[in-house]
Amino acid sequence: MSQVRKHIYADNAATSPLSRKAYEAMLPYLMNDYGNASQPYVFARKPKKVLQEARAVIADCIGATSEEIFFTSCGTESNNWVIQGAFRQGKHIVTSAIEHHSILRPCAVCGDATLIPVSKDGVVFYDYYRAALDNNASGLASIMFANNEIGTVEPIAELAEIAHQKGWLFHTDAVQAVGHTPINVKELGIDLLSSSAHKFNGPKGIGFLYKKKGIEWPSLLMGGSQEFGNRAGTENVPSIVGMATALQENIDSLQMNIKHLQYLEDILINGLKDNNISFCRNGAANHIAGNISLSFPAADGEALLHRLDLMGISVSTGSACDSKETQVSHVLKAIHLDEQLAKGTIRISFGRWNMEDEVHLIVSSLKKIL
Ligand code: PLP
């Protein structure tokens, strides 16, 4: 009789499994307390109340206040809200060459943006950034907190400070960072921040935008007066509750999660070395724990992904949104990775529920394939 092998999911940067606690917290608002939170009758009281509670929990997790949190449908919507809103106000945008497409595409379509190059580790070059801000009277600087393909964490506090010195606003796409690294928007000087629940064990199709009190921003979705008149659309109460529960859970065990992920990373890297597998690792020393971009010389990343898939292991070649494109990703191009190495690149991204034996299996599977 053939043995059924456990599936190993190592693509948590693409999406992460829903936490059981979040799932259970969502259930009452899917089945029983399904009232529209905007209605004035008694049946809507509970959804309205949990909406307020979820807003407070999320605000607290990032050092904001409740009235600064606006629920959206995903990270893509939050990013589009910021970028399209900036262009509509006539602001010039300075962003990096390694942003997610939900920043880069609206920039390309809506107006004129300056793309800042990055180092071989994926860190934004300060000099280019400063010069770009100097060349334009005022605008919006938008630099991602952490890169989705190589995990590099950008020097957010410094970049925000430079923006403010020049009278610019500072936005960060923190989709890969929220719930994975400590964030305090006030201490870091962030004016706007995008986030998405499915990257921190919350449900898919829900996110939020942090907008510092006092900043006026045109709405992206217009219609009803939900979200204090800033974002129209009936609130997705079950998902919002799930998002707040998952975020709180991750923040409560943040240091433990980071330690566990660093431990798994070490096992992977040492395992590859011990097995004499040649590889180079992309990204900076300061990266999101568990996000590991590896390039294997003379290998084909696409083929590696499919071979691992056949062995029951899910990894990625670049960002999830890029998986249909076979050409080298814009991130690997921006860090000037040798083209042959870029083609042999995979991203392994562990989550808090990955275990040591799974990492050993990934190493032995890679050894077999390579
Ligand atoms: N920004 C980054 C850095 C991401 O990694 C992603 C998703 O992969 C997004 C934005 C888009 O988020 P969502 O899938 O919630 O639209």
Number of strands: 12
Poorly predicted regions: none
Strand order of the largest sheet: 2-8-7-6-5-3-4
Helix content range: 40-55%
Bound molecules: pyridoxal-5'-phosphate
How many individual helices? Answer: 14
> What structural class is derived from the secondary structure elements?
alpha/beta
Order of helices and strands: EHHEHEHEHEHEHEEHHHEEHEHHEH
User: Main sheet?
Assistant: 7 strands, mixed
Give Rg in angstroms.
21 Å
In the CATH scheme, the class of the largest domain would be Alpha Beta
CATH level 3 topology of the largest domain: Aspartate Aminotransferase, domain 2
Q: Average pLDDT across residues?
A: 95
Classify the beta-strand content into a percent band: 5-15%
Examine the secondary-structure arrangement and name the CATH architecture of the largest domain: 3-Layer(aba) Sandwich
Number of domains: 2
By CATH, the superfamily of the largest domain comes out as: Type I PLP-dependent aspartate aminotransferase-like (Major domain)
Shape: globular
* First-residue to last-residue Cα separation: 29 Å
